[in-house]
């Protein structure tokens, strides 16, 4: 007789189904019944493992963060630090270039318009991305504290802008974004971004 799946495995199965529904139907149109059908499970079991819709949205954000942390772990050195060039490459080429994550984040943006909790969670996600850039610049002694924060904000804004434009089929080469980010940082090293 087969052993019942562990709670973590069941939760992962349900989250995959939720994410698939969000991509296919949008977050506003996805119901627990849709998720249950996608996962091949009874609705009551989905609710038992995942809680209500708000709980599932929180878990969806946590899932995105977990993926990002897995990617960040790959580029950390033996002391846990991340080189600025590696972080920029990761942001431009992977994290903000991932179609699945971008679709889910787009849906979360729409939800954040009417949900203060989701808005605060996303603010935290993007604040963390900025903090990572600031920390990498500080380790490499680039610019001042204010200059680093300003540069990180500009860089993240450019990357998010590129991501948004790609949704409309307006795409720039990834290297163009990396080059623009490097130019912003270059301003700090010349002292004009302070």
Tell me about this structure.
By secondary structure, the protein is mainly α. It folds into two domains: 1-51, Homeodomain-like (Arc Repressor Mutant, subunit A), CATH 1.10.10; 64-189, Tetracycline Repressor, domain 2. The chain is 74% helix and 0% strand. It has nine helices and no strands. The chain has helices at residues 7-25, 32-39, 43-50, 53-75, 84-93, 99-112, 116-139, 145-166, 174-189. The N and C termini lie far apart (67 Å). The model has no long low-confidence stretch (mean pLDDT 91).
Task: Give a short overview.
The protein is an all-alpha fold and 194 residues long. It has helices at residues 7-25, 32-39, 43-50, 53-75, 84-93, 99-112, 116-139, 145-166, 174-189.
What form results from the Cα inertia axes? elongated
| Structural domains: how many | 2
- Quantity of strands, as a count: 0
Element order, helices and strands? HHHHHHHHH
Beta-strand portion reads under 5%
Measured distance between first and last alpha carbons: 67 Å
Poorly predicted runs of 5 or more residues: none
The CATH architecture of the largest domain can be named as Orthogonal Bundle
**Helix segment tally:** 9
Instruction: Report the biggest beta sheet as strand number plus sense, adding barrel if it closes.
Output: none
């Amino acid at each position: 007789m087969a052993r019942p799946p562990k709670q973590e495995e069941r939760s992962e199965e349900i989250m995959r189904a939720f994410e698939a529904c969000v991509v296919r139907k949008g977050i506003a149109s996805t119901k627990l019944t849709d998720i249950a059908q996608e996962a091949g499970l009874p609705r009551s079991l989905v609710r038992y493992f995942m809680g209500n819709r708000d709980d599932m949205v929180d878990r969806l954000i946590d899932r995105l963060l977990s993926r990002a942390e897995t990617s960040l772990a790959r580029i950390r050195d033996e002391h846990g630090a991340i080189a600025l060039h590696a972080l920029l490459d990761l942001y431009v080429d992977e994290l903000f270039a991932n179609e699945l994550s971008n679709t889910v984040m787009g849906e979360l943006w729409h939800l954040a318009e009417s949900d203060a909790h989701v808005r605060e969670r996303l603010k935290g996600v993007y604040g963390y991305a900025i903090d990572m850039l600031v920390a990498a610049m500080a380790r490499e002694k680039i610019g001042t504290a204010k200059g680093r924060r300003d540069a990180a904000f500009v860089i993240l804004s450019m990357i998010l802008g590129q991501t948004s434009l790609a949704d409309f089929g307006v795409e720039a080469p990834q290297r163009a974004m990396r080059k623009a980010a490097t130019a912003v940082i270059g301003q700090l090293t010349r002292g004009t971004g302070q």
